[in-house]
Amino acid sequence: MLFRPDQNALRLKSGAHRLCMPYPSVDQFVSAVKQVVLANKKWIPPPGRGTLYIRPILFGSGPILGSLPVPEYTFTVFACPVGRFHQDNAGLNLKIEDKFRRAFPSGTGGVKSITNYSPVWITLAEAKAQGFSDVLFLDAATGKNVEELFASNVFIVKGNVVSTPEISGTILPGVTRKSIIELTRDFGYKVEERVVPVEDLLNAEEVFCTGTAAIVTTIASVTFKETKTEFKTGDKTLAAKLFATLTDIQMGRVEDKKGWTVELTDATTPGLKL
Ligand SMILES: *Cc1c(COP(=O)(O)O)cnc(C)c1O
Q1: What residue ranges line ligand 1, CB within 6 angstroms?
Q2: Strands (DSSP E) found in 62-211
Q3: Alpha carbons within 13 A on the beta-carbon side of 169
Q4: 265 pLDDT exceeds 90?
Q5: 2, 53, 151, 226 — which has fewest CB within 10 A?
Q6: Which residues are known catalytic residues?
Q7: Minimal CA–CA distance to 182: which of 110, 245, 109?
Q8: pLDDT tens column, 94-107
Q9: In terms of Cα–Cα distance, which of 9, 103, 106, 101 is closest to 58?
Q10: What angle do CA 187, 192, 194 make, to 5 degrees?
Q11: Alpha-carbon distance 91 to 208, whole Å?
């Protein structure tokens, strides 16, 4: 089962456009992913034991000295069996990063580009050395609002309202984020995509993060300027319910009424039979 490959293809396309790179069509992208999965089917973990993580990569290369777009581009699809990304079932302990910023207005924070990680790797390394699981970045313009984690999006829950930072160019538009917004609304919650001040996060009842690898992961605590705030964790959280619902759809355990999954069999993809 593939999860929303078309959405990932469209995101690669808009990111490549922003970085002046040529890109594969949605069909080329999805077909390449299918071929890689079928060619590696023996590496797909058994149900409940993990997933086959797929990472499509577009890179440029060539004999060029100037700081210009290169003459040659490669699109490749990498796959690797993985277990759960965040091992910590008790929930993550985050540190709000108060010195370095991940993205700035009109920059490339909204592009899934490798150039967004190395400038802030220092913050994650420091947080991990201090015993934290991940970092939470603040917006570069004011330093007052939360944006996202190192590689996942953040949501806060208070009563019947779920809030998440809006897509404004500085956060990565996660496919999981988009799917979780839809499922949360289906559960009857009001979802607000808006500016989320740090105070709102610290006053929330529940906090969780989303991403292809993180799926939906509960956040147990957030530390801001040495003060630690704890949040609800466990089976009764909205995060636990969303995790169960999303993985049921992804694994084909329930009917996919949204059309998010693509089932891959030799029969449904005859041209790709290997
Ligand atoms: C990949 C990523 C996400 C999550 O996006 P998904 O499409 O849900 O996997 C969020 N933030 C950053 C910075 C990311 O790199």
Answers
A1: 112, 148, 151-153, 172, 174-177, 210-212
A2: 72-82, 92-96, 134-138, 146-149, 153-158, 161-165, 190-194, 206-211
A3: 8
A4: no
A5: 226
A6: 112
A7: 245
A8: 999 999 999 999 99
A9: 9
A10: 155
A11: 9
List domains and CATH numbers for the chain. Answer: 2-83 (3.30.470.10), 92-232+240-250 (3.20.10.10)
- Does the pTM surpass 0.85? The reply is yes
C-beta atoms surrounding 259 within 10 Å: 8
Task: Supply the residue whose CA is at minimum distance from atom 6 of ligand 1.
Answer: 174
Residue 114 CA: distances (Å) to CA of 8, 79, 141, 142, 169: 16, 17, 22, 25, 16
269: confidence class by pLDDT, cuts 50, 70, 90: low
CA dihedral for 57, 61, 65, 71, sign (positive or negative): negative
Candidate of 8, 112, 246 to mutate for ligand 1, largest count of ligand atoms within 8 Å of Cβ: 112
Q: Which residue has the tokens 């699981």?
A: 133
